[in-house]
Write a structure and sequence with these properties.
The complex is a heterodimer of chains A (about 250) and B (about 325).
Chain A: E1 2-6, E2 9-11, E3 19-20, E4 25-26, E5 33-35, H1 37-53, E6 56-62, H2 68-77, E7 81-85, H3 92-106, E8 110-114, H4 125-133, E9 136-147, E10 150-157, E11 160-167, E12 170-174, H5 189-197, E13 200-203, E14 212-218, E15 227-229, H6 234-244
Parallel strand pairs in A: 1-6, 1-8, 6-7, 7-13, 8-12, 9-12
Antiparallel strand pairs in A: 2-5, 3-4, 9-10, 10-11
Chain B: E1 2-6, E2 9-10, E3 13-14, H1 16-32, E4 35-41, E5 56-60, H2 70-83, E6 86-91, H3 95-108, E7 111-116, E8 126-132, E9 137-143, E10 148-152, E11 167-171, E12 183-189, E13 201-205, H4 215-225, E14 228-231, H5 233-237, E15 258-262, H6 268-274, E16 279-284, H7 291-294, E17 297-300, H8 303-320
Parallel strand pairs in B: 1-4, 1-6, 4-5, 5-11, 6-10, 7-10, 13-14, 13-15, 15-16, 16-17
Antiparallel strand pairs in B: 2-3, 8-9
Classes of the chains: A alpha/beta (about 250), B alpha/beta (about 325).
Chain lengths: ~250, ~325
């Protein structure tokens, strides 16, 4: 089985979010970048398929050279080789078209992406890739088994789960649950050394034009102070929630 | 031209998120001075959508569409969109809507903006305000394609009545869900409990609850309020609660009217995930917990003393205000 894992390079979950250039650009100053958490769960599941079922695992990132430390980390975790599409990702549709090209050229059986990136939260790349290459698609995937060309997946739905069967080629939008948090791997020294020798192929973009464009950013208005209520005076809390906040 | 909305139903009844999406669609249609049309699958009382300003409902009533199938549903919506020259398509941000929207975008070669919180602005092109960086920021997104798909965040625009007479057409299609490669084997859904996505109120517990054996306190409080239950990341990582209840940056987003956090310190990732909730209440024995800076109301106190009292008092309140 040939697996392609799509990796988004995103600010660490603890990052303070600020903007520069008149609020038109994300301020990367002092920000640590990481593998998008939803993608990392998928990458870890891919490593399981590699170990147990002899799958090959490639990774793809759409991004400029600054994304390479994040890509190297995926190789250190155990991916076999990496592909970087050399263009600034500005729009989910654009990114999906680039990944679809890589996916088609590489003839992958299984494409694993995160359900969304934690920076732009577009939530569209995996579904668009599937439709563009004519593969089956399962979103918010929290469990995946593959036998031959048949797959069984668990999808998170509002208020529960759904079990689905399908066939390869398949694209999933993955998230926590594909593997547990404790299964995530921190690269060891051997992995880091080996990653330096693994291929990182840079390819030219193919998509033309954008369908959407992030023009400017703003931050939520600062919050007023919390109103503290005495633990002995629960009636006061209920009164505030009912009459002031109108929440109950 | 038209504005089209996908109005999702469950067991024949429209979801609240669908009514919100319909209200938003009417808002866009007014801006564009055009009609609002809706696509629904096996909905009962489809003409109820008229209350929210929908002019025409295409309701498909075939048994093979009883179970959700993202590709087939997207294909049907595309058919209607093409036939009625929809220039803007509105979907909610339910799990199913998020599943089908990207497929629809490829079908129609449409730009897609998710997590949109306000009606579009037309001052400098067609621009929408959406949340980004998991609720830590907003972004103004310009949409440049002929057909545009907007995913409306739950609980942001709200449900608005704007009554008109809706006509309902029993829609027929050649699309067959059985033709594509995905089959639903089983659905495991707790039908007695409100889901986090649909809940007006969410009661959430953290490590301060000390163990899964104490969760009846959270559940009793939630039941009293008709609320969904949720938890912090450490709680789901330790296996005290299922992953489906984890709210935060890597878990589920919460956009409820009221969010009550008990024994949750308020890590930045957790706060990002619940930031879209309107009113936040924190109960924690540590007055220095970061959550107090993000909350509207707070009680510094022992969860094991405060929760039972709060549940008791709320029962009285409910009885008096029934």
């Amino acid at each position: 089985m040939k697996i392609l894992v799509c990796i988004s390079h995103v600010p660490d979950t603890t990052s303070k979010i600020n903007f520069t250039d008149n609020d038109t650009k994300f301020d990367t100053n002092g920000v640590q970048f990481i593998i998008n958490p939803n993608d990392e769960f998928g990458l870890t599941r891919a490593m399981w398929f590699k170990e147990k079922q002899g799958a090959s695992v490639d990774v793809v990132t759409v991004g400029l050279k600054d994304t390479e430390p994040t890509i190297r980390k995926t190789l250190a975790i155990g991916a076999d080789q990496a592909i970087r599409v050399d263009v600034e990702p500005k729009d989910g549709f654009q990114v999906a078209k680039e990944i679809a090209k890589v996916a088609k050229d590489g003839n992958y059986d299984l494409i694993i992406a995160g359900r969304e990136s934690i920076d732009y939260n577009g939530g569209m790349v995996p579904g668009m890739v599937a439709k563009l290459i004519g593969a089956n698609f399962i979103n918010t995937c929290v469990g995946l088994e593959v036998e031959g060309d048949k797959a069984t997946a668990i999808r998170e739905i509002d208020g529960g789960k759904e079990t689905l069967t399908t066939t390869l080629p398949l694209v999933i939008g993955g998230q926590k649950g594909l593997v547990e948090e404790s299964d995530l791997k921190i690269p060891n020294m051997r992995g880091i050394m080996m990653a330096r020798k693994k291929p990182l192929n840079v390819v030219e973009p193919v998509a033309d034009g954008l369908s959407t464009e992030a023009k400017s950013f703003s931050k939520p208005a600062p919050k007023g102070d919390v109103k503290l209520v005495d633990a002995e005076n629960i009636d006061e809390l209920i009164n505030l929630l009912h009459n002031e906040a109108k929440a109950i | 031209m038209s504005v089209l909305v996908y109005t999702e139903s469950e067991n024949g009844k429209f979801k609240k998120a669908a009514l919100e999406a319909a209200s938003y669609a009417k808002g866009v249609a007014k801006q564009l001075e055009t009609e609002t049309i809706a696509v629904s699958f096996n909905a009962e009382n489809a003409n109820d959508l008229g209350t929210y300003g929908v002019d025409k409902v295409f309701n498909l009533t075939q048994d093979d569409f009883a179970k959700f199938n993202a590709e087939a549903f997207a294909d049907v919506i595309s058919e209607v969109a093409k036939a009625h020259e929809a220039s803007v398509i509105i979907v909610s941000q339910s799990a199913n809507a998020k599943y089908l929207a990207p497929l629809l975008a490829v079908n129609l070669n449409a730009g897609y903006a998710s997590n949109v919180v306000e009606l579009p602005s037309h001052e400098e092109g067609f621009t929408v305000k959406r949340t980004a960086f998991t609720n830590k920021a907003f972004n103004q997104t310009l949409m440049t394609t002929d057909v545009k798909i907007i995913g409306v965040s739950s609980n942001a625009y709200g449900v608005h009545e704007d009554a008109t007479e809706a006509t309902v057409e029993d829609y027929q299609t050649e699309v067959r869900p059985g033709d594509n490669g995905i089959e639903v084997q089983s659905i495991d859904k707790n039908t007695n409990k409100v889901s986090i996505a649909d809940a007006e109120i969410v009661v959430s517990g953290g490590r301060g609850l000390k163990g899964p054996e104490n969760w009846h306190l959270i559940e009793d409080l939630a039941e009293t309020l008709g609320a969904a239950t949720a938890c912090s990341k450490p709680v789901s990582d330790m296996g005290w609660r299922p992953h489906g209840e984890h709210v935060g940056q890597t878990g589920k987003p919460v956009a409820s009217n009221l969010y009550i956090a008990i024994g949750i310190s308020g890590a930045i990732q957790h706060l990002a995930g619940i930031n879209a909730s309107k009113v936040k209440v924190v109960i924690n024995n540590d007055p220095e917990a970061p959550f107090f800076k993000a909350a509207d109301y707070g009680i510094v106190g022992d969860a094991f003393e405060v929760i039972p009292k709060l549940t008791e008092k709320l029962k009285e309140f409910k009885a008096n205000n029934a």
